[in-house]
Amino acid sequence: MNVRRLRTRSRIGTAAVAGAAALGLLTLSACGNSSAADGKDGGKLDVVASFYPMQFLAEEIGGEHVSVDPLTKPGVEPHDLELKPRQIAELGEADLLLYLGGLQPAVDEAVEQSAVENKVDAASLTDLDLHSAGDGHDHGGEEHAEEHGEEHGGGHEEEEAAGEATDPHFWLDPVKYAEAAEGVGKALEKADPDHAADYKKNTAALVKKLEGLNKDFEDGLKGTKTKTFITAHTAFGYLAERYDLDQEGITGLDPTAEPSPARMKELQQVAKEEKVSTVFFETLASDKTAKALAADTGLKTDVLDPLEGITDKSKGADYIEVMHANLDALKKALGAK
């Protein structure tokens, strides 16, 4: 996993994603030109995706050649996922497991316990950053690592000492998500070489969509009246960094954590100083604290969706549509011209 420190408002260089990274993680039992999908029902590649952002990549790139089974069902908060022994055992039957290490402890444990051979950890497909575990606004700031993509050698001890933790929510940055898409495409090509040409084509099409989404965000968030937005938890650090915004989370990277009274008081002050208009809440987590803060400060509330799952409450049918809804919400809250 590539991990580097960040300073809010500093420029992120696009991480170069080597296809070999995905291929190195993908241990395939297929020999020669045979496909992992050989002998499967309908000849489709059986892909298990840990949660929605992984599912979207697999479906968009795999197209008609894959059958995607999400471990996290609609409406379930991914961090809360629990797997039964039967589900863990069934992972070994998948042709490919696509997951994000560090986000779902139950999945990480299942990967270790199961007999699944072919797996891709999306955390290896782009650079992950160290974000403050308490909030998303960097008041002092840590400089970027000297080398882009530098391996973080200090482990958890160094992270805890700095009050930081590796942030897994990279999919909310379309640029980083496109990097992961490239890696997933390479993995599918290796797992199912018979359809490699289609996977290449689908990957290119998805990357083009994500490039367009990035351009929409860049254009839409120019000239805002304020750069600061308040969220239920700090899932939007990569998005904030990409578009020169400041995220203030009621809680840190863990959406189940409870904010301290001191944190709530601090946010009231931030809202006043930074002319914040809106407190954002999420679709899969409780909105109680966010709405309480809004009531105490006289602010509006709205949804900013971290896209950890799609439900009937989502403002869109897929990743692209919900991200555009997020853009509209941010433009309104930040006073974009």
UniProtKB/TrEMBL annotation:
Presence of keyword Disulfide bond: no
GO molecular function terms listed in the Swiss-Prot or TrEMBL record: metal ion binding
Pfam families for this protein: ZnuA (PF01297)
Region (Disordered) location: 131-165
InterPro entries the UniProt entry points to: AdhesinB, Bact_metal-bind_prot9, Lipoprotein_PsaA-like, ZnuA-like
The family this protein is said to belong to: Belongs to the bacterial solute-binding protein 9 family.
Protein name from the UniProt record: Zinc ABC transporter solute-binding protein
